[in-house]
Design a protein that fits this description.
The complex is a heterodimer of chains A (323) and B (294). Chain A is mainly alpha-helical and 323 residues long. Chain A is built from twelve helices and four strands. Chain B has a domain of 194 residues. In chain B, helix 1 runs parallel beside helix 5 and helix 1 crosses helix 9. Classes of the chains: A mainly alpha (323), B mainly alpha (294).
């Protein structure tokens, strides 16, 4: 990351914060919560995109099956909240621990291969899981699970009700910001440097005395946890889960989001997700066939701006800086 | 024992084979495109759907099925050339070529699938079977169209194989796969080869679409459902390997149809993908590699 890119990232971070504040203020004033709910959903899928960017942009592994962990988190969360105990903290902790375990186990399958084959094996794993869930009657089969209760989050002095759209949005925003800054912190640790090394030239690192398999495994498990805890928020927002959450279109969308925002920038994942959600709902009100527009936009971005929004912004800043 | 073989296994094997040849046709297109261009074509399934839709439309104009079988693949050739020349070529020299082309073709697939809904509507169509009746083979009745499908499919697969390995055009394609720069310096118009090969793969997918339309229904998302199986075949067989695509195609479709004798057919997809994951675990590059040797 050069100087200009860092500046661009900093600008995007502020932009996200300002946009969030504006949304909350408008929500408070008008009482219209439609956009807040949409923004919350954008952030939740932004969490999935973050995990894709951690793998793709930082470690250089293209995952086409990250929806597996997202869907796992969503299903587990729905099960815990509905059938066990409607507790936010319990849910997040259990999801985090079990997704770490799932990520650790699946990493032994996925990390055997590299490059294009990694992409394909991650895709295959997600397919197996998604189809199995789709066929399992006790998990609601093709209908998914409905009736996830609205929950309260107890804090030491205050109890927050997630049924309130503004509260839910703020909680999700803080949650994602927490994940974002944690991942960003990791980048500047020795581990993060090794991740960068793996992306640039993996076969070189062993010559320098570094093991690459362990750092890759850590990144893989971390990405699984990030995707799963983001997914855990989904049933709290929508009240249901369905097998579509694990499908390829969700994984594919997350990759698109990351490319739109800017690969390897992390903030690009959250920003891209918000932008995509805005586009989808705006175009969705104009035409029934918004996929055509989204697809076109996507083709244009890949061809003309493969570095995404952060890339475009930092190029602008560079020109400005040179003048 | 012999009776169960005759009345239970044989029909399943025949059914598996008739789907198998169509899957192999799809997989051949995918694997040739990957072998030559390093492009994982996510929109391949949409070309399969395009083949089926165009066939249905042409037939409603009064053109017979047999003509659509010839016309439809040709209709899609210019589209394939355009896609390679206008889109894929633009990101071809980027260092993240794998990822970018995958995303690009994914975008095209998104557009096409919605476009089909606009043009043909979201309803399913089912063209009439061009060959009706059934034949008695060893005391079991098989639909004539499925028998035709198997024979014609096998003929097509063999033709593709011979085309790639026994003709001079095929050897040009293989040379370009092996070493692009060397081929270019020997005077092979590599860009033209790329465009035509891409179009060839697209035409094969369309052909598979025309052939399968009378068996399955025709609907906008049909490509998405079928492409996953074709992907599994290509991956198990080894990306870029023609031999691998044929063998894996037979293997996986037989696995699919025979396993449905014992467990519910809804589990056939998880089984196929589990096999794919297993193969990738132990032989990460698939059963066979590359296009170089027959």
């Amino acid at each position: 990351m050069d100087k200009y890119q860092q500046k661009a990232v900093r600008m995007m971070e502020w932009l996200m914060l300002i946009a969030a504040i504006i949304l909350v203020v408008i929500g408070k004033l008008t009482g219209d919560t439609f956009f807040l709910r949409l923004a919350t959903e954008a952030l939740i899928f932004g969490g999935l995109a973050l995990s894709v960017d951690l793998l793709l942009g930082i470690v250089g592994l293209l995952s086409l099956g990250q929806a597996l962990y997202f869907g796992f988190g969503a299903y587990l969360s729905a099960l815990i909240l509905r059938d066990w105990m409607p507790s936010f903290w319990l849910c997040i902790v259990v999801v985090a621990i079990s997704s770490a375990l799932l990520g650790w186990i699946t990493s032994f399958i996925a990390l055997r291969s590299k490059g294009v084959y990694f992409a394909l094996i991650s895709f295959g794993l997600a397919q197996v899981f998604a189809k199995s869930v789709y066929n399992t009657r006790s998990l609601g089969a093709s209908d998914g699970m409905v009736g996830v209760p609205v929950i309260q989050i107890p804090f030491p002095f205050i109890t927050l009700n997630l049924g309130d759209a503004i509260t839910f949005f703020v909680i999700t925003f803080i949650f994602m910001a927490g994940i974002y800054f944690t991942l960003k912190y990791f980048l500047y640790t020795p581990l993060g440097r090794i991740w960068n090394g793996v992306r640039s030239n993996e076969s070189r690192l062993p010559y320098l005395g570094y093991n690459t398999q362990v750092p890759k495994r850590i990144a893989f498990v971390l990405a699984a946890v990030v995707a799963a805890v983001s997914g855990a928020l989904y049933p709290m927002l929508r009240g249901f889960v369905s097998p579509e959450l694990m499908y390829f279109s969700v994984s594919g969308n997350a990759v698109i989001t990351v490319v739109l925002g800017g690969v390897g920038t992390l903030i690009g994942a959250l920003f891209g997700s918000s932008l995509l959600m805005i586009l989808k709902s705006v175009i969705g009100t104009l035409t029934l066939h918004h996929h055509i527009v989204i697809g076109l936009l996507f083709v244009i971005i890949v061809i003309f701006a493969p570095k995404g929004i952060v890339g475009m912004l930092s190029a602008k800043l560079k020109v400005k800086g040179a003048q | 024992m012999l009776e169960s073989l005759q009345f239970i296994f044989a029909p399943q094997i025949i059914n598996g084979l008739s789907i198998g040849v169509a899957v192999i046709l799809m997989a051949l297109g995918l694997t040739i495109i990957f072998g030559l261009l390093d492009v994982i074509n996510m929109s391949h399934g949409e070309f399969y759907a395009a083949g089926a839709f165009l066939s249905v439309s042409l037939m409603s104009l009064g053109i017979s099925f047999w003509w659509t079988l010839m016309i439809v693949p040709l209709l899609l050739v210019p589209f394939g050339i355009a896609m390679q020349e206008l889109l894929i070529k633009k990101v071809f020299h980027h260092k993240d070529r794998h990822i970018l082309t995958l995303l690009l073709t994914f975008g095209v697939a998104t557009i096409l699938e919605d476009l089909y809904k606009v043009i043909w509507g979201a309803n399913t169509a089912k063209p009439a079977t061009p060959i009706t009746g059934a034949s008695d083979i060893l005391g079991v009745m098989f639909p004539n169209y499925r028998i035709f499908l198997m024979i014609f499919g096998a003929f097509l697969i063999l033709s593709v194989w011979l085309f790639i390995y026994k003709t001079s055009i095929g050897s040009i394609v293989r040379a370009a796969t092996l070493d692009r720069d060397m081929s270019a310096s020997l005077g092979i118009p590599v860009n033209k080869v790329y465009a035509l090969t891409f179009a060839f793969g697209v035409a094969l997918a369309a052909l598979a679409g025309v052939l399968l339309a009378p068996i399955y229904s025709v609907f906008p998302t049909m490509g998405k459902d079928f492409i996953l199986l074709a992907f599994a075949v290509v991956i198990v067989g080894g990306l870029g390997s023609i031999k691998g695509a044929v063998i894996a195609g037979l293997l996986l479709t037989q696995l699919q149809s025979l396993s449905s004798l014992y467990i519910s057919p809804v589990w056939s997809d998880p089984i196929v993908f589990s096999v794919m994951v297993l193969v990738l675990m132990f032989k990460p590059s698939g059963l066979y590699t590359g296009m170089k040797n027959g």
